[in-house]
Every structure is written in structure tokens, then in C-alpha cells.
Amino acid sequence: MPALMPTDFSGTVTWLGRVADREATLEAEPLQEVAVGFAGVAGEEHGGLTRPSCSRVLSQHPRNTVIRNVRQFSIVSAEELALIAAKMGLERIDPAWVGASMVVEGLADFTHLPPSSRLQGPDGVTLVVDMENRPCQLPARVIEGVHPGFGKAFKTAAKGRRGVTAWVEREGRLAVGDGLRLHVPDQRAWQGFLPLFGEAG
Which residue range or ranges hold the MOSC domain (predicted)? Predict the structure, then answer.
């Protein structure tokens, strides 16, 4: 019995990028097409099969522990970028400023896609959604360099709209204009959280 359900929901890749040297800048280089391997995109700072653990997983691992890299892609939605820009008082936010790997248009509430959802491209290339990405100050610095006085507003404006991190389940190619079909796990939401939100009964 299949564990993942193909849905009728799909999005379109509107932008691709690569961060070559995060120490130098988070700003991404725009690309029209990328080859996607099991380690991610060649030359991408976030690529690799493993990575050193960071502040996001300190409750699980000491900093710099070698762990599986489920942050090979940073994916944001065009709609949520527009909302962030509006909240900041900017006309637009260039995806390069936030170090995005990909921008997808057409999938509502993108940042809150169920973890373990799949985004599958035309040739079968498949990315697995790890979880919601969290806003940090690195994009704020890039934005501040372009629009002085606005960078400090990024973290608050991007809360709940920062997109998702993802890793490669199946190799292939991705290009601007490609469609991505959403597949979701065939399971109900975990009930263990209900008492925490006062919904038990």
C-alpha cells in the first residue's frame, strides 16, 4: 500500500540559485537550471550528504556533530516572499538576498507543508521537505546592504513565511519553469500535540 499520496496540487519553479560561499555572503547566484544529485547541487554551500550540526538542532546534538544533511535546499514561495516584502515596506525581495535555492509559485501556505512531503519534477527528480525553515539575521544583513534601514525588519516579517528546507530523494534536473507536483504522507496528524493546544476532549 503506498505511503505517499500524489495530490492535485502543484507549483512552478520561478527561480533557482546557488550560494557558493556562505562565509563571504549569503546572497545566491541566480541560475536557469541545476543538476540535482544525492548531495544536492554542485558548488552549493549547503550541499553534501552530511553537515555539522548547528543551533537548530542543539537539543538533539552538540554543535558541529556530523549529521545527515537534510538542508540541501532552501525553498521559498513567491507568494510568501511578496508578503514578507509588504510587511517590511519593500516593493519586492530578491530571492538571492535570502540565500534561496529555489522559489516555487502556486502552493498555498508553503512554509507549512507537512514534513516528509515530496516535491517531484518532470523527470522524476524528487525533493523531500524536511521542515519549516526559521528566519535568521543573515538575510537581514544582505537586505540592509541593499536597502539601508530595512534589514532589521526581516526576521519578524519572515516568521512563518521563510519556506522549507529539503533534501534529495531522487536525482535529476530542475529548470526555471518546471512544474513540481506535491505528494503528502498518507497519515493523519499526530494527536499527541492536542493536549498542548487545549483541543483534547
Answer: 5-183
